[in-house]
Amino acid sequence: MSKELVTEKGICPSCSHLEGRLCQKTMIRFKADESFFSECNYFDPKEVKSLTLDQIRRDGGTQPRVAINQTIVEEYADDLREGAVFPPVLLFNDGTDHWLVDGYHRVLAAEMIGLTEIAAEVRQGTRRDAVLYSCGANATHGLRRTNADKRRAVLRLLEDSEWSKWSDREIARRCGLRTHL
Which of 101, 113, 125, 177 is spaced 20 to 30 A from 133 at the CA atom? Predict the structure, then answer.
């Protein structure tokens, strides 16, 4: 059962989900009524900028999921049409390319409704850094990972000549798994 947080604007102050939706960070259901406050800081707005969707690379092996959940993409698209503002997607920039590591469903929803830009938190790092980070994406927020998604992340590390030398515990930590393998 989720907790309920009341806001005057009808949106989650942390992840900007509309009233009645669950915050993807705190799993608190938001409702409009009283004073506006936040129980978490999902992102630092100072680190966020707007990028065009065509600047975002999705072809570098950074998709952590086995498959895109089309139902979620459609729900997110509906929410965007209704004025929802989602948390920024997370990208790694290697000086040339912006590699998407967290936010595939949000990017697809934005495309679905014809948006050309999206809010993005950009960190410096290589495509390889992005792949490693993506293995732990959605461990604590967003659409829950399936067991197949978790398995894919672990296998990605085990198939790498450097990362496969790490201990089971380190691989589990990097993949956002609670128990060691």
Answer: 113
- The reported pLDDT for the residue numbered 47 is 65
- Distance (Å, whole) CA 51 – CA 133: 20
73-110 per-residue burial string, b: 16 or more CB within 10 A, e: under 16:
beebbebbeeebebbbbbbbbbeebbbbbbbbbbbbbb
Class in CATH terms, 43-174: alpha beta
Separation of alpha carbons 166 and 174, rounded Å:
10
- Residue-averaged pLDDT of the chain: 77
Q: How is the beta sheet containing 98-102 ordered, strand by strand?
A: 48-52, 117-124, 89-93, 98-102, 56-57
Residue 140: strand, helix, or coil? coil
